[in-house]
Amino acid sequence: MDLAQGVQIVSFALLSLMMIAAALGVVLLSNIVYSAFLLGGVFISISGLYILLNADFVAAAQVLIYVGAVNVLILFAIMLVNKREDFTPLSSAGLRKGATALVCAGLFVLLSTMVLATPWSASTASVPTTESSIVRIGQHFFTDFLLPFELASVLLLIAMVGAIILARREYLPEVLQTPKVQQQVLTLPERPRELVPAISDSSTLTSTKGDRN
Amino acid sequence: MNSGIDLQGIFIKSLMDLGLPPGAAKAIWLPLPMFLMIIGATVGVLVTVWLERKISAAAQQRIGPEYMGPFGVLAPVADGMKLVFKEDILPAQSDRLLFTLGPVLVVIPVFLSYLIVPFGQNLVITDIGTGIFLWVALSSIAPIGLLMAGYSSNNKYSLLGGLRAAAQSISYEIPLSLSVLAIVMMSNSLSTIDIVQQQSGAGILSWNIWRQPFGLIVFWICALAECERLPFDLPEAEEEIVAGYQTEYSGMKFALFYLSSYVNLVLSALLFSVLYLGGWNFPIPIDLLANLLGVSETDPWLQIITASLGIIMTLLKAYFLVFLAVLLRWTVPRVRIDQLLDLGWKFLLPVSLANLLLTAALKLVFPFAFGG
After folding, report:
1. Complex ipTM, two decimals?
2. Where does B53-157 show beta strands of DSSP type E?
3. For residue B180, what is the enclosing H or E element?
4. pLDDT score for A211
5. What is the gyration radius of the CA atoms in chain B, in angstroms?
6. Rounded to whole angstroms, how far apart are CA atoms B35 and B202?
7. For residue A54, how many other CB atoms are within 10 A of its CB?
């Protein structure tokens, strides 16, 4: 075993441990902000696993989209809502937890059988490691995955143009139809004073000045 | 290409001659370039802080730091030492773990991005295929650290600053990526080395600055916004929200924020010079000069001159851009938050989309000039 292999095994173990611990934290912690931050940790660990699989472009895309956009959006929503509310203990909580555990265990069993049943060894031999993964992804995009790729990109372009249009739309503030309520004029709690004209022949200008004093 | 001087090979070979196994020799070599790059980035920050002080002084008709070393060059060192020795304060009722983790998460991606900054044909830590895309991806991690810092400080100004930073970063990431994408489309590669190679044909005339005038402006505005430099320093606007997400920080943790913002500025300037100003290329092609003088390109001293000229050119271009950024900071007023988002979504995004479309069309029509 040379240096590269040792590094690979150690980082695989570390990344898996990190991912499982962070994922458990996302589910089990009661503080939702911690859960959101740990979700970012899960995404980062997954991108590390992608790097170990020689999929560098997918790893960078994972960081860009999931950590940089999705996770930030989740955090943004949590911090903008900021609703402090104590959860009332649900009735029949044990039953719900039991049902959840059953569903999760079933999913786990299904996935394990899938993992055990799939012949994984077929795909490892043919991949040349010299050329960049981007070139291979691009070739697949423009040959056998052309339609899904084009559909997805058109959808994203539509979303982006829609965002621009939403941002550019001019809001016309609706004129309030309610009749104006005569507002009480707020005054300082002072004794009402006589207006003292500044000069003997008082003009309107000076009287308005006196009002403000 | 001829092989030329291979520092890595010579280093590993001399260690193996001393009796070390090849794996150990390689492992001793590996951290050296990274360490050198981290030192370089930190020194670059010190230079930038000194420039900022001197240029701001010149903009305000002051002298600036003068007695700390010649022309005050030791002022940023003094700043750094002061921050190192300051007390590390944890505010009451703050979230200790997140409070400590926030600055760390902001600093690490910025330094990691230096992996892809090339200073020469082989003067780069790693020439990975994803290249410039890695930088775009890594720069999107920083807002999580800022949100973390803002949330954990238990301070309304901090939280507001963190949210502003995240909103600003998300808004300006899209035009930034689109303007980078136009460059990538012309050079047919994401690798920074290939991007510079594609601009190296005819000296200054083949730089991307002539082919991407709109992308260049969009990129620079977005880079300033991502670095939170002054026209866009909403997240730490002093008059509105004390110091934003840094309000509660002191000592070394504050220094990490400070460091990361300046490292990010230098990094953006370096990548701007790589993307648009021809990277390490001299305005006149060096091969041409060497041929005129009749020097073979395998000469060791020519290679040393080329390499050092490449480093000097990259740094010169980058520091010219840093100078522009500093000048902008001290002459331009801050925009409001709604103007900021308007500029990002209503102006830069359509312009960068149109620029991408135009580049694609030009590439199809004139494949010789726009990288066919």
Report:
1. 0.81
2. none
3. helix B156-187
4. 45
5. 22
6. 34
7. 12
Smallest CA–CA distance from B97 into chain A, residue: A34
Rounded-to-integer distance, Cα B356 and Cα B217, Å? 13
Residues in A touching B163 (Cβ below 8 Å): 76, 79-80
The 10s digit of each residue's pLDDT in A142-185 is 888 899 999 999 998 898 888 878 777 766 556 555 555 666 67
What DSSP string runs through A69-123? IIIHHHHHHHHHH----PPPPPTTHHHHHHHHHHHHHHHHHHHHHHHHHS-GGGG
pLDDT digits (tens, 9 = 90+) for A83-118: 666 667 777 778 888 898 899 999 999 999 998 888
3-state secondary structure B8-66: HHHHHHHHHHCCCCHHHHHHHHCHHHHHHHHHHHHHHHHHHHHHHHHHHHHHCCCCCCC
SS3 category, B102:
helix
- DSSP class of residue A181 equals P
b/e burial code for range B154-167 (CB count within 10 A of at least 16 → b): ebebbbbbbbbbbb
Closest C-alpha to B275, from B317, B240, B307, B233: B317
- A140 is written with which tokens? 């697949």
Min Cα–Cα distance to chain B from A64, Å: 4
Per-residue pLDDT of B184-198, as tens digits, reads 888 888 888 888 888
Whether A158 and chain B come into contact, CB under 8 Å, resolves to no
pTM, full prediction? 0.81
CA dist A131 to A103, A136, B128, Å? 42, 8, 11
CB contact under 8 A, A60 and B173: no
**Amino acid symbol at A34:** Y
**Nearby residues of A194 by Cβ (< 8 Å), 6 or more positions away:** none
| A72-81 helix and A32-52 helix, angle to the nearest 10 degrees | 180
Query: Do residues B234 and B164 touch, judged by C-beta distance below 8 A?
Result: yes
For chain B, strand residue ranges (E) read none
A163 CB neighbours in chain B (<8 A) are: 345, 349
